[in-house]
Amino acid sequence: MYDLKGKKGLVVGVANQHSIAFSCAQMLYEQGAELIVSYANEKTAPFIQPLQDALPSVLFKQCDVSCDEQLASLAAIARSEFGNIDFVIHSVAFAPKEDLKGRLIDAHRAGFQLAMDVSCLSFIRLIRLLEPILNPASSLITMSYLGGARAVQNYGLMGPIKASLESSVRYMALELGQQGHRVNALSPGPIKTRAASGLKDFDLLLERSEHKSPLKRNLSPEDVAGAAVFLVSDLSMAITGSTLYVDNGYHAVD
Ligand code: NAD
Which of the listed CATH numbers 3.10.50.30, 1.10.8.50, 3.30.420.270, 3.40.50.720 matches domain 8-252? Predict the structure, then answer.
């Protein structure tokens, strides 16, 4: 598809074989990229072994992105393994269940702060730590959702957090553009993953997405991975500061 031989990078946020991050890692690997993949904690570890088997030669590392020391240690591993890197895929989100299920205006201060820290600030901090080892024209990608641009029923506090993430993408694109780095968000439609299962009435969202989207098809993590491969490749050299919808066109219609 695209030749990514010689490209090196990080994929952050694999939990199991359904994770968007895993599909991204798999497709990047198939195109010849060299990767380090990270997962959150020891609770996720049992699901990681089969993924490691599927991606031999890929280094898997544990990293809780809400912890500065662990972010720094991931950046140090990237430096020692690769020297410099060419891309980062940040595919991480979290909100405490109680806050995620409720209304935005009922969110607890601590829950909102934790969700913002893990789902938005971690992207900014990770890129700050990796900046010294980014090759010119690196591609830095995070995952957003339509709920950041519009109020989507049951998306609650994650909406303003994704809005902040998309705004951060624009500012980071501005700040890092001089070195040729591109910073973009992918905005997938609903896909059944562990993170998505925390949302109230997620099945309704899935149904609506399939029936209302112009392409009238289910979305898969591989659809998102294809867009990630394009953004990592040199064919997307002129794309930065964007939120690219990968949602069968759902965002464009009423
Ligand atoms: P997922 O559960 O597979 O991935 C979410 C990841 O975040 C998991 O690997 C989890 O371990 C990780 N994570 C949570 N807290 C963390 C922490 N403190 N440190 C490190 N990692 C942590 O689900 P997914 O759907 O693949 O989600 C990936 C991204 O895609 C998220 O940003 C999500 O908001 C976004 N997204 C998902 C959908 C969807 O419908 N699945 C749609 C649009 C956007």
Answer: 3.40.50.720
